UniProtKB/TrEMBL annotation, chains A, B:
Name recorded for this polypeptide: Pyridine nucleotide-disulfide oxidoreductase
Similarity remark: Belongs to the class-III pyridine nucleotide-disulfide oxidoreductase family.
One Pfam family it belongs to: Pyr_redox_2
Record flagged with keyword Protease: no
InterPro entries recorded: FAD-bd_OxRdtase, FAD/NAD-bd_sf, FAD/NAD-binding_dom, FAD/NAD-linked_Rdtase_dimer_sf, Pyr_nucl-diS_OxRdtase_dimer
Source species taxonomy: Archaea, Methanobacteriati, Methanobacteriota, Stenosarchaea group, Halobacteria
Gene3D superfamilies: FAD/NAD(P)-binding domain
Domain Pyridine nucleotide-disulphide oxidoreductase dimerisation: 357-459
Keyword Oxidoreductase: yes
Organism field: Haloferax marisrubri
GO terms, molecular function: oxidoreductase activity
Requisite cofactors: FAD
Length: 475, 475
């Protein structure tokens, strides 16, 4: 085993999970984590709720403080950017506050994450236009939404990490009364709720026909009704070209297919891109643009691993690499790689691209392959059924309409994926689908699952069982 | 195929599911259902909530009315009791309002259900002492809890089926101010909530050390704390010998290990017994006392099936017959038998003995083999771990402590069972365990499941994943 340290590039979910697991294994090697920013190990997923005001302090969203990382024996260097990787010499070049230096590695983990897409929206650099990727963005947006009289950087709970100048600048501005959200994905839907809570007139622009595209039409349609019921104005099938600013360089309007709508702010959530540029010449990238890895997170370069939002991971249904930017797979892959590098090989696992999201009071979930074209591309002959059933026994108060779509392969009967939407415990029910996918269950096997039943929690036939029953009838 | 009808004995979940499925198959044979009572196809599980007052009418709990059954082509005969079965001659003897007659059958389904155990509690026939098994019991108890001035049989919503004389008699009595619940199982825990809602002083007596025994100690302990926090007085490890009545024959005290406690009412929920006596000489019974069946619900007698609370069903973990009295397996087995009898054989499936129950605001779930002795008896070398984790991201409001116990086999790593308790979406999470059990997943495979994560619904590592991680470390 090399005496050179385990070097980790990126101090968020995957990177610090790997470093923590490695440090706990108590080898005689050091682990060094280089993080280009000031924040480490923070919960991206919490940022809309910080903006909304349900999460009080930025530091509440840290799952590991720099001090706790040090206590675990991790040599954590914040504001240190790795600017070059030499896989032949096994050395990385690091730009830090005190200059640039070279750091040799025994093993290397690339955990550089992803970035919010800003193209092709022209005007995204105007004041009042934001993407949401990180706590500094969240701090700036919440400051912007707060009355200047009340806005205080200290109230953000930034713990010394936050970009105070940026927060203060937006805190001093007159708060917006209206906002254009560009993109109806996770960020768009969650931020619609956050902006509504602040009393803004919210316009959501979605290029395709439905919001939450990865959740399919049945979920999208119910979420749209629900967003409208909460006062959000939807612009579906509407391609935003640019944001227009006033003379002071502040957002004044959104321009969509030639028409202008006056707004005071804009939130752009049109997707992410993997931060794979750093190693694009050093390791193989996959078709997704993220770093290709094997079952243990190893890249094409010896002793170089990749995990989290910059890397691929295999899909449990298709067996093909997919690009997943969610928290659990990043944590799990990082943890597995830390264990592998420490000498006890552990596979990074697979994903069903399971995801859940809250849209005001609606809970949405999806797992597996639910798009029929995608299923065909993967070699399946997909059949899909959608049902709506109560979330509880019909006679028990609080039963909520729950819509489930399941997709299966006609030839084998194998379940390929599913989506769910409803106001009562809908999201966690997708875990049944995710578990069935990991086990390669057929629809008939899903129909016969012995799921829990009691009037306050489920009808006799859980909505997922009802969907399986109906889908089986169509196979 | 015989031209004689498909005869079903018992018009509840299993019986009417079978009859409905058979009738839909549109064969040229009739289906006749004999039900000894007036109620058919009603939701046992809803009765505590009817007593509590959350369910308004008795008829709300009917999943199929007699009229709807007739519309489906089912020849439903209520108040017809099958008193003898002759499997050689293929004929049943039926006692109905117009006398006794013989009914030949082509195929026969025994779906006679279960009954509430009344032994060995002496005094259970006193006024004010109840078991809860059926809508007439529920009607009597709710009437008893209602002030005589307000009590009205019409308010029960009995739809012409209810035992009005019994309800009226209890409705005329002075309502109780205190109650002894004998038995801390489902009925005991759910009725504690119902009686508390009516303002009674509630004493719950449990013979063993913990309530909800089938859910294990970790759940039992949390439920006990919660019951006490809601004002229920617990008497654990306390064997009730008898109920003592006053001169008018009404419950006056509960006698427990020589001590008396004055109470005005008693609720006895000490278990069920299968109604297998009718065919005890005609078909083989299993070790559980319920009717033994094969994978298609066939008994040892030709063309005689059994399903629901009177029959056994195989356990997915042990592969051995078990006795399960819950709604979903009864519905599923009945439906499968209806299809099989109609000529399209369908297995009745297996059970994990999954169950969920609400105890005031706590949600409890269990699935599989969770008792270590039971696991050893089944040939496993069980290892168990219990963890407590938040139900949501720690920074998100409303996260509730969720306690998960998982049990696995040391040799194979296979998951054997699990329990869960918590106030926030705990119960439905047991479905992940139930699905994993059906798929014979190992603990390592459970740990790598791609379950949903978003701050309002789950921490990054769902409590079930955390439990799997910890248990895997102990294998």
């Amino acid at each position: 085993m090399s005496a050179e340290p385990f070097v980790v590039v990126g101090g968020d979910a995957a990177g610090l999970s790997a470093a923590s697991k490695f440090a706990r294994a108590d080898t005689d090697r050091d682990v060094v984590v280089f993080e280009k920013g000031r924040w480490v190990s923070y919960a991206h997923c919490g940022t809309p709720y910080f903006v909304k005001g349900e999460v009080e302090k930025l530091t509440d969203m840290l799952s590991l403080s720099p001090e706790a990382a040090a206590d675990r024996g991790i040599d954590l260097r914040r504001e240190h950017e790795v600017v070059a990787v030499d896989t032949d010499e096994r050395v990385v070049t690091v730009a830090g506050p005190d200059g640039t230096f070279e750091q040799p590695y025994g093993d290397l983990l690339i955990a550089t994450g992803a970035r919010a897409l800003r193209e092709p929206i022209d005007g995204i650099d105007l004041d009042g236009a934001f993407t949401l990727h990180g706590l500094d963005d969240a701090a700036a947006i919440r400051s912007f939404l707060t009355d200047p009289v009340e806005a205080s950087v200290a109230d953000l709970g930034g713990g010394g990490f936050v970009d105070e100048a940026r927060a203060a600048r937006f805190g001093a501005m007159e708060p917006p009364e209206s906002v254009a959200i560009v993109g109806g994905g996770f960020v768009g839907v969650e931020m619609a709720e956050a902006f509504t809570a602040h009393g803004l007139d919210v316009h959501l622009f979605q290029r395709s026909g439905h919001v939450l595209g990865s959740f399919g039409d049945a979920v999208g349609e119910r979420v749209e009704e629900h967003l409208e019921a909460h006062g959000v104005t939807l612009h579906l099938g509407a391609s935003v070209e640019r944001l227009r600013g006033d003379d002071a360089g502040r957002v004044e309007a959104v321009v969509c297919e030639g028409d202008e709508l006056a707004v005071d702010a804009a939130m752009v959530g049109i997707g992410l891109r993997p931060n794979s540029d750093l190693v694009a010449d050093a390791v193989d990238l996959g078709e997704t643009g993220a770093i290709a890895v094997d079952d243990y997170g190893r890249t094409s370069a010896e002793r170089v691993y990749a995990a989290g939002d910059c890397a691929e991971i295999d899909h449990v249904v298709t067996g093909e690499p997919t690009w997943n930017t969610l928290g659990l797979p990043a944590n799990r892959a990082g943890r597995a790689i830390g264990q592998t590098v420490a000498g006890d090989p552990e596979p990074i696992g697979t994903v069903a691209n399971t995801s859940v999201v809250k849209a005001f009071d609606l809970e949405c979930g999806r797992a597996g392959v639910t798009d029929l074209d995608e299923a065909r591309d993967a070699g399946f002959d997909p059949v899909s059924e959608t049902i709506t059933a109560g979330s509880r026994s019909g006679y028990y108060p609080g039963s909520a309409e729950t819509t489930v779509t399941l997709v299966a392969d006609r030839d084998t009967g194998r379940l390929l994926g599913g989506t769910i939407v409803g106001a009562d415990r809908a999201a966690v029910r997708i875990d049944t689908v995710a578990t069935a996918l990991a086990s390669e269950l057929t629809v008939a096997e899903v129909e016969r699952l012995d799921l829990g039943y009691a009037p306050p929690f489920s009808p006799v036939w859980d909505p997922i069982l009802t969907a399986a029953k109906v889908l089986r009838g169509s196979l």
